[in-house]
Amino acid sequence: MSARDPHRFSHELDAAAVERVIARLESRAQDTVFMRLFEKYVAHLTLPESAQVLEVGCGSGAMLRFLARRGDFSGRLVGVDQCPSFIQAANRFADAEGVEGLVDFRVEDAHSLGFATASFDVVIAHTLVSHVTEPAAVLREMARVVRPGGTVVVFDGDYESLTYAFPDHDFGRRMDAALVNATFNNPRIMRDLPRLLPDLGLELTVAWGDAVAEIGRASYFRSFAEVYVPYVTNAGLLPADAVAGWWTAQQQSMQNNTFFACCNYYTYLARRI
């Protein structure tokens, strides 16, 4: 059987599934290790006070809210997502944090953005392209709406590298692959970007990789498994009892300080020619 990437079809999820994904996005934004990766590429951006910034696939809006809370920024922040429930949550969180006047969240399809050409100084895809239907189409739209000389940022994981420790190495590899299959439409897309960007009129200016690893205790990889392991079972990718046993073992390793999980993430900053 095959699985459906829940983010690719986020606009079709039921209310309970939407709330689980929103909770995952928000918990990820509170994770020190993961947020450090976001802060790392933000530090490379030239963001004048009047900068026009677009995030494509903004989810619950956590990344843009971070920018809005910066005291040195008063430009325009726009976030788009295909899922109306995500946009409602983004507006709710922005209002709760008192930054609603600095961010504009709206429903849009990343494959066909409703913005004029050269509308933004910076366009960001933060863990988006691994989920979309056609990555090249999304990247083409990002290149279209950024101004000449502006910056396109693509941050995402190389999810073929995602791995959790498990005593049965053979089943562990199968479970890693099942998690990737259930969660990401384009798990290897970051390997393709150096080849794709020049054809879109984008010149790569800087890129780097980071390993996100949790050893002993877990937060980031705990919430990942809590949300996405059920998709492995529901899709019938592996026997339900075996998946349950794997998850029980992961929880036990978190409790006794023997946990291990890791995934490589990559950041690309490109200039619109």
Tell me about this structure.
This protein is α/β, with parallel strands linked by helices and 273 residues long. It has one domain: Rossmann fold. The chain contains nine helices and seven strands, in the order H-H-E-H-E-H-E-E-H-E-H-H-E-H-H-E. It has a seven-stranded mixed β-sheet with strand order 3-2-1-4-5-7-6, with helices on both faces. Strand 2, helix 4 and strand 3 form a beta-alpha-beta unit. The longest helix is centred in the first third of the chain and has 16 residues. The chain is globular, with a radius of gyration of 19 Å. The N and C termini lie far apart (43 Å). The mean pLDDT is 95.
Oligomer: single chain
| CATH architecture grouping | 3-Layer(aba) Sandwich
Overall spatial form: globular
Q: Output the CATH homologous superfamily.
A: Vaccinia Virus protein VP39
Q: State the low-pLDDT regions, or none.
A: none
Write down the secondary-structure element order.
Answer: HHEHEHEEHEHHEHHE
> Over the alpha carbons, how many angstroms does the gyration radius reach?
19 Å
User: Major sheet: size, sense and barrel closure?
Assistant: 7 strands, mixed
Number of distinct beta strands: 7
The average pLDDT score comes to 95
How widely separated are the two ends? 43 Å
Q: Can you tell me the CATH class?
A: Alpha Beta
Structural class assignment? alpha/beta
Number of domains: 1
Strand residues, percent: 25-35%
Annotation field: number of helices: 9
Helix content: 25-40%
Biggest β-sheet: strands ordered side by side in the sheet: 3-2-1-4-5-7-6
Looking at CATH, which topology would you report? Rossmann fold
